[in-house]
Fold these 4 entries.
Entry 1:
Amino acid sequence: MSFLSIDIGGTKTLIACVSDKGRLSRRDKFPTSTNLREYLNTLFTHLKAFQDVSPELIVVAVPGIVKNNAPVSLGNRPSWKKLPFALVINKLFNCPIYFENDASLGAIYESKFYSGKTIYLTFSTGVGGGIAEKTNLIQPDSSHFEPGHRLYTYDGQKLEWEDIASCKALEARYGVVATSIRGRDKYTDIAARLALGIKDIIKDEQPDTIVVGGPLALRYRHFSKALKSFLKEDLDGIKLPRIRPAKSPKEAVTRGIYLYAKKQSKNRGKGGSK
């Protein structure tokens, strides 16, 4: 028995075959085109190589809002109005397809390591987030928690948080990929940008743990002290939660897909459905 994982990211799409024991037996990735028709054709071509897998079910991670098991919008592809991913996949596979927000899937995986409410924040092309407790989503409707779209006044402009704190924003500011940014002043700047949104999330949600995911997790130790210092200044007496880098910065979503797929498979075995 196996599951098929499709992670549609802002820059690349990752397809993986995941065994019922969680082992990734095969992977493939390709750039996520900005043109929807071109993307769908490329997705179809790459999925054809997995037809021999005969998965029990397929889980598709999308960087946007999912309602009633269907993606309705992608934050990094606002021009894509109709998202017929299921139609393309169904041409090749005859099995159930489940859609879920990518950050929510990351939260499912990262929350397994902590007690209480865990908020997973991923900083990449944009800023996404999910809320879970011991691998169970607390807010399964991803439209209820979109931290990257919170508005802030920054450098005299009204900007969304992801236009301030995402890796894309940092790369535009410093001219190098986020994981190559070096220097104490730059780390302090990164911490200030992250603290801007995280402090409001702490006030609103009062989580037990916040997990920093995406490429910034790989540099977390360099700006963690400054980040906690900024947060302590403006929490109005609210206890600072644990703040940790992701256990699996590169594969949190895929590992979350595995846990999610196992639950869906179990539910189907009991006669349940999504």
Note: Helices lie at 36-48, 85-90, 102-110, 162-165, 167-174, 184-205, 220-232, 252-269.
Entry 2:
Amino acid sequence: MSASEFVLAHTRLAPVPFVPEVRLHLAQDAIDLWEHTESHTGESQPPPFWAFAWAGGQAVARHILDFPDIVRGKTVLDLASGSGLVAIAAALAGARHVIANDIDPYAVAAVTLNARANGVPGTVTPNGEDLLTGPASPDVDVLLAGDVFYSKEMSARMLAFLERAAAAGTEVLAGDPGRAYLPHERLTVVAGYDVPMVGALENADTKRATVLRPATPV
């Protein structure tokens, strides 16, 4: 079974609660899917972030659909894309080209399927490289990232990358529901949204998620 076949077998296509313009292949149970993923590969796997619409990503997607001039006609990078929600929203908002980057091969497969389901496969290009390695900043107009501050190590790597991009002149927006490793002091809040959640994914029926940008590019 290929990664694409696995995604189709273990998810169902459904609208995103806070961004109903977008439909994604979503899972119902994170633990069950995680176990199936490890059984499929025969080895330890990261959590299947690609199979859920997380609060930070929903906030960024909602923001750019409501304010499409942020991405219209521009090149966009959706970093740690997961399901591709933010990338697809950018494409629907009029972006010229969107790179949906994630190192998880299942995420790359999910992005491909989700872009096709939303009629934007020609605009969204999946990318499986580790872009955080090395000092370079991305050669794009806009960098979007949802739910990337989920661990201490990853928060530090992501913040450094986002700040380098902002310093190079890229418009940078990140979405987060106030996780423990969110570097508040280095970011400025652009907007806030009360995002409805499905089931117990975020341990709440609604999460307050903010859209932020680097406060002082370095």
Note: The two ends are 45 Å apart (CA to CA).
Entry 3:
Amino acid sequence: MVTALNRIAVVEDNPVLARMLKRILGDSGYHVTVSGTVATALATIRTTDPSLIILDLMLPDGRGEDVLDELMQFRPLSRVLVLSSISHMARRVSVLDAGAMDFLAKPFANAELLARIRTRIRAAQSSPAQSSPAQSSPVWATSAPRYLLRAGIQLDLKRREVLVDGRHVPLTQQEFLLLMHLLQRAPDPCSRGELLASVWGTNIDTGTNVVDVSVRRLRWKLASNQIETVRNVGYRIAA
């Protein structure tokens, strides 16, 4: 049965690898669509509304970053796992900063890929709202609060909308999760390790400043001073 949480879009132009990914994921119960170009990938994602996108960075008609940039415009809550042989640290940091949720270098172990996918799918299942407004969300039948309100910031967890002093602020999936975690923990500070685990789904120090860069981008979008730096700890929402 095809559900909202088992659809995966694979963007990979190598036909051998694309077939292998479709087989591996299909055997694990996922419904997989495969695209080999930027143009077909964007069209397929628009029509299939996948819960996860596996994205190569080298495509015949452009770069994977082109797909990612476009996604962040029309589908900013997309969960993107980059799968690429380009493993330079600067490129990895760049795609994570641009909105990708994860990066796995080729060649990869099938077990690790499936584990990372399960982690992202579980995150989608436990998330207060999904990226598609047409999806049902049983959690809203509970008494869980819909809004997080603090320091002039209002997060609508059902609609995935952010208002700052009445101004709508569009955020990527990663930025939304980062802000949500900070608000939920306020006024307590959050360590970088805690944020890595909550937002990026890893307990391993990536050796990058991805948390710091993402906080800077979030501060710039909020255009305010609500996020404070706690020296030698991490960050918190201002009281």
Note: DSSP finds eight helices and 14 strands in the chain.
Entry 4:
Amino acid sequence: MISRTIRAVVVAAGLTSLFAGSAAAQQCGGDFSRFLSGVKAEAVQRGLSSSAADAVLSGASVSQSVLNRDRAQGVFKQTFLEFSQRTGSASRLNTGKRKIQQYASTFNRAQREFGVPPGVLTAFWAMETDFGAVQGDFNTRNALVTLSYDCRRPHIFRPQLMALIEMTQHGDFDPATETGAWAGELGQVQMLPEDIIRYGVDGDGDGHVRVKKSSPDALLTAANFIRSLGWRAGEPWIQEVVIPQDLPWDKTGFGGGMTAGQWFRLGVQPRDGNTRFSNLPTALLMPQGRKGPAFLAYPNFNVYLEWNQSFIYTTSVAYFATRFEGAPAYNKGNPEPGLSDSQMKQLQTILSRKGFDVGKIDGILGAGTRDAVRSVQMQLGIPADGWPTPQLLRALQ
């Protein structure tokens, strides 16, 4: 699973400037004991107990394995069909349906209080930890201490360490034994400590928010968090469609400015037949081009992009959520062959030389590369679906 801390990095980068004057918040590196003393002093200054700080910091150590992961994060190069079929398997779908029945009262509460449907929560639960089975094996305390002590991004991780101390003070976290992802996400739906503190819900009524051990706590906390990201109750998030071969391709993708109704009038047909949300703005997404699966993304899809910025992940988990809500499996279509890793890097290099901002030359079909591909496709007079093919690469060489 790709770390979601990138989202937190972006958010926190905008917030920490408000506290730039805090000397304690800027401490990193140097003598480790002095660093820990500074963390404790800041925690106490924030109103947290000395004993909770000691419980977290006593015995803490720098984890080289965390540093290694931070400096060599995996890249996401699977196609939509590859990733969505692997992660949204029939076995997972059946397990998720059983979980919805098992925790029916929790899911009903999540929809009643936060407006988040069961399928949405279940898809995240499945994708993030396989329903709690794989929550990560990095000691969370040591991971956040390490990333706070390291001077790459201490302003991102130190607030998470403070939140972890607060969770410990509440009796919701055992710093000596509890584990999670390398970047500090923890629990059955993989959330960061600050988000757990802000949006935590005691789902099982035991007086605690324990997102690692309690499924009701984890699910309701996730639902509250999803609502905070702008979830619009009662509205769809993604809808599979069948598209004609002739469309205003310049209007596809994000930022096209078309409503669902406008797409319907152009011949785009929803597979479920539902046209009740014709007035909502949409984006027509084709993860593997116009010959592969196609979807209309509604405003709620933005929440998925807030959760994880990977286009393939977000489209896959959003689609999987519709399966739990009764949608059929998508039509795979017959996508044109894509590019190999080396070919994608060649394409990115060419596009960069032409003045397009594709970001790092990394072989990943990210948003910048997709936008650039659509632009050159329009210049060449071919359907601008954002899917790079060997034929396109040859045309640009």
Note: Residues 341-396 form one domain.
